[in-house]
Amino acid sequence: MTPTTPTIPTTPMTPMTPTTPTTRRVAITGLGVVAPGGIGVKAYWEMLTAGRSATRTITHFDASPFRSRVAAECDFDPEAAGLSPQEIRRMDRAAQFAVVSAREALADSGIEADTYAPARIGVALGNAVGCTTSLEREYVVVSDGGRKWTVDHEYAVPELYRHFVPSSMVAELAWTAGAEGPAAMVSTGCTSGLDALGHAAELIREGSADLVVAGATEAPISPITSACFDAIHATTPRNDDPEHACRPFDRTRNGLVLGEGAATLVLEDLEHARRRGAHVYAEIAGFASRCNAHHMTGLKPDGREMAEAIDVALAQARIDPSEVDYVNAHGSSTKMNDRHETAAFKRSLGHHAYRTPVSSIKSMIGHSLGAIGGLEAAACALAIEHGVLPPTANLTEPDPECDLDYIPLHAREQRTDVVLSVGSGFGGFQTALVLARPERSGR
Amino acid sequence: MTARAVVTGLGIVAPNGLGTEEYWAATLAGKSGLGPVTRFDAGRYPSRIAGEVPGFVPEEHIPSRLLPQTDHMTRLALTAAGWAVEDAAVDPAALDEYGMGVVTAASGGGVEYGQRELQNLWSRGKEYVSAYQSFAWFYAVNTGQISIRHKMRGPSGVLVTEQAGGLDTLGHARRHVRRGIPLVVSGGVDGALCPWGWVAQIATGRLSTADDPDRAYLPFTDEASGYVPGEGGAILLVEDAGAARARGAERIYGEIAGYAATFDPRPGSGRPPGLRRAVEEALADARMTAAEVDVVFADAAGVPELDRAEADTLTAVFGPYGVPVTAPKTMTGRLFGGGASLDVAAALLSLRDGVVPPTANVTAPADGLALDLVTGCAREARLRTALVLARGYGGFNAAMVVRRV
Amino acid sequence: MSGHTLIDLPELTRLLRECAGEEEGVDLDGDVLDTAFMELGYDSLALLQVIGCIQRDHGIELDEDAVAEAETPRALLDVINSAARDAEKLAA
Predict the structure, then answer these.
(1) Could you tell me which residues belong to the region Disordered (chain A) (predicted)?
(2) Pick from B366, B364, B386, B383: which is nearest to B375 by CA?
(3) Structural domain tally of chain B?
(4) How many C-beta atoms surround the C-beta of residue A130 within 10 A?
């Protein structure tokens, strides 16, 4: 593999334009969040804009044998969060996060039980690794601590299959929202959260649903996940300084910090939303995903396929690259990723890339795999709402190869109409989502 | 004018046949692939029958470099995808890399691989966990590996809706085609034939405990006592009809004419299940009436109350004995993310050959189920349109209409 | 250089085959000592898998950066065997 220095194309690449123009627009009318350092949207936004990092030494299990022992954990009490004993028993932690965030988002959206017919409500849930925590716990029991290959069915809990097929979490969301329309889990690794939003928006645009509860959840902090990421040196070994362990775009970054959490965005046909007088945070103006077809975990340094996704998403939104006010980066804090996407931004935005603020909130909430795209999209909607851009925490020594404006350390006040959020995941997935203020000039 | 999505290639790996023609010959002959589990010692479990893909030697189909990093079901999926591309006579290198997408269904991921690595971790220590575990078991693995192997860089995805996934992915492929992507590799190949996957299913209480492979999976009958799990499925090449013509595609199996997905109401709500609405919406989407449907490939859960709900739906939409109904999955078992796309492949082959495969081992539907169930021998018929149904654990419903072009 | 060799080329290629398979068209039994791993069809993941096995089975710890910089079998064997010798000295 020959490393190539990113170059700035003089003219933006010509993206493919969708052949089926659509008149339906998609509004975000409700937000709900369960995040490390902040349960609920208010606490989440306060934490992000304060630049506070929630990464810490792992407490969920004894991580002492592992190379990386840092994670961003949620201080989540399911009972205090309003779940009943039966719900707690039935649901994996990831499902609990999803339901709690969905309840907040639905309440926030102000929809009533009869606003939409159940058949017109859909569900899309992004998730990468399913009910890992419960599955591993139950595996240990039925295998007697890993001793048995022919595991004991007598010791299996009745909920085991619910944990085994992660689509069971979609059922929980559908029941929460009273949804009987199209429902699916979207599982594209670390782009699952963004891809679920893209899928949800598509359901509304094509007319399959009028409202979609678009969630993203993950609760992966468990021994098997740590072992996986340890084995490929993806997670940081910076164990002596857990609070500053995730350092996107910093010269000293050396791996990602695992996170957990959930976000739900209530998406609605914009006209419907306006008619019922709903508060609209932003609209989903464009979305595209591409594959790098290169490697299951590796990235090419040129950022080519991510750039293609960005170009297509902006074209779909009919937004010129120069109109982008803020980029919410994948910024996973691995050596490879942060250079890859810096190259992608330059490819897509050209010289405007140097004038566009970029930040990675993973510096504060870690990388919650399939949930992170939802959490990032929620942060983007809040950035448009409040005119404040969350910073990249821990960025004290810029990497010379990452030479954009990454909003180091402190949040920035700035009117923001157009936001680009990107993700990159195992499997080669590259996704771009464009959020915009619906009444921005000229619309 | 909306782009039409057609199927131009099939890749099948099934318990009763490796490869399309082998599968189809067995299916028309009513030859079942169910038998005692051989992949692990199932002797101690209450359920011991499965549909295993026979004669699959990974080394013959999968490059050596991919073997240490792939679960059995991913190897089957890569093989099926390769066959679908070959069947369609597509040369991916000659097409726009961003104009080819991959969308597959998943349910439990690479379960056997995952069990081995969990065992390594818990019995020996974290140093024994494979560097490939991070993606070998996760739900997105098949899409990622297929896209890499065929250098397809277009919009790609993974949908998890348990057994409905095979239809949902094909519906999603059609969505991409309608948005201007000329080619999408789609469908599902799945499987979890290992003790860990087995025990998870036993917990549902829906697994058949019969020991006779011919009596274990008898949907729509009085003897229905659950389902038999299998492995495999089908990968389909979905193309824009215009693009397929433009590249000189030799064969068009049929068009994905209609699709809809619904979700069941919360248990105890008293509201009706969503399957009927899925059927009606799929027909409306195809701009067709029930009278135009020539055959139905049923979900055929094998669980009495679910069978009855499906039969009632078919009776409500088509009238009593109103349409031939079949369930070739009685010969393969239920294939999780792979089952429904295999049914679509079977439906397309039925349209091609004018013949409906039988529901194996079933002689007649249970009393009270007004179904024209195709049993015994395959039935020849003039076929233009088929309806395929699928349901996923938890409340997923999907329906797809395919028709000859 | 003194002391015995912990891993030689045949052992390394055996481990590569076992842990990561073998690229078509590559003759691992040929003169590959100075052929880049990339040319042999092995990516960083394959090497991490092999390195993981060696560290685990021989109880040695290898410097991550040194391993990452080793682009050929010769370079990697140097890293492994010098670390093994250092560990031996330390034990003595």
Answers:
(1) 1-21
(2) B364
(3) 2
(4) 32
Tell me the pairing of strands B100-105 and B157-160: parallel
SS3 assignment, position A420: strand
In the chain, the amino acid numbered B16 is N
- Its pTM stands at 0.96
Between CA B221 and CA A50 the distance in angstroms is 64
List the catalytic residue out of A163, A272, A340, A367.
A367
Q: Does residue B237 sit in the same domain as residue B263? A: no
Chain A residues with at least one Cβ partner in C under 8 Å: 1, 231-233, 295-298
User: How close does chain A come to B295, measured CA to CA in Å?
Assistant: 24
Residue B354 and residue B302 share a domain = yes
- Across the interface, whether the CB atoms of A167 and B160 are under 8 A apart is answered yes
- The answer to whether the CB atoms of B63 and C56 lie below 8 A apart is no
C-beta separation of C37 from C71 below 8 A? yes
B251, part of any domain:
no
Whether A386 is catalytic is: no
Task: Report ipTM for this prediction.
Answer: 0.97
Q: Distance between CA atoms of B23 and B36, rounded to whole angstroms? A: 19
Q: Is A272 a catalytic residue?
A: no
Amino acid at B178: R
State whether residue C49 is helix, strand or coil: helix
CA distance A254 to A358: 20
Query: Are B315 and B196 part of one and the same domain?
Result: no
Is A402 marked active-site? no
3-state SS, one letter per residue, for B40-76: CCCCCCCCCEEECCCCCCHHHHCCHHHHHHCCHHHHH
CA distance B65 to chain C (A): 4
Q: Do B131 and C52 touch (CB under 8 A)?
A: yes
> Which residue in A has a C-alpha nearest to residue B395's C-alpha?
A171
Residue of B nearest to A180 (CA): B263
**CB-CB under 8 Å, B130 with C56:** no
Phi/psi for B258 (5° steps) reads: -150, 150
CB B98 within 8 A of CB B156: no
CATH top-level class of C9-91: mainly alpha
**Smallest Cβ distance to C20: which of B65, B127, B128?**
B65
- A26-131+166-436: which CATH architecture? 3-Layer(aba) Sandwich (3.40)
Q: Is C63 on the interface with A (CB under 8 A)?
A: no
Q: Is residue B272 domain-shared with residue B194, that is, in the same domain?
A: no
- Write down which residue in B221, B246, B271 finishes a domain: B246
Cβ-Cβ contacts under 8 Å between A and B: the total is: 270
Q: Looking at beta carbons, which residues of chain C come within 8 Å of A295?
A: 43
Q: What is the signed CA dihedral for A174, A175, A176, A182, rounded to 10 degrees?
A: 20
Residue-range definition of the domain harbouring residue B322: 258-403
Residues of C with CB below 8 A from A296's CB? 45
> Would you write out chain B's pLDDT as a tens digit for each of its 405 residues?
578 999 999 999 999 999 999 999 999 999 999 999 999 999 999 999 999 999 999 999 999 999 999 999 999 999 999 999 999 999 999 999 999 999 999 999 999 999 999 999 999 999 999 999 999 999 999 999 999 999 999 999 999 999 999 999 999 999 999 999 999 999 999 999 999 999 999 999 999 999 999 999 999 999 999 999 999 999 999 999 999 999 999 999 999 999 999 999 999 999 999 999 999 999 999 999 999 999 999 999 999 999 999 999 999 999 999 999 999 999 999 999 999 999 999 999 999 999 999 999 999 999 999 999 999 999 999 999 999 999 999 999 999 999 999
- Spatial contact of A20 and A211, defined as CB atoms under 8 Å apart: no
* Residues in chain A within 8 Å Cβ distance of C49: 231
Strand, coil or helix: A201: helix
For residue A224, how many other CB atoms are within 10 A of its CB? 25
A92 close to A219: Cβ distance less than 8 angstroms = yes
Q: What is the DSSP string of A202-256?
A: HHHHTTS-SEEEEEEEE---SHHHHHHHHHTT-B---TT-GGG---TTBTT---B
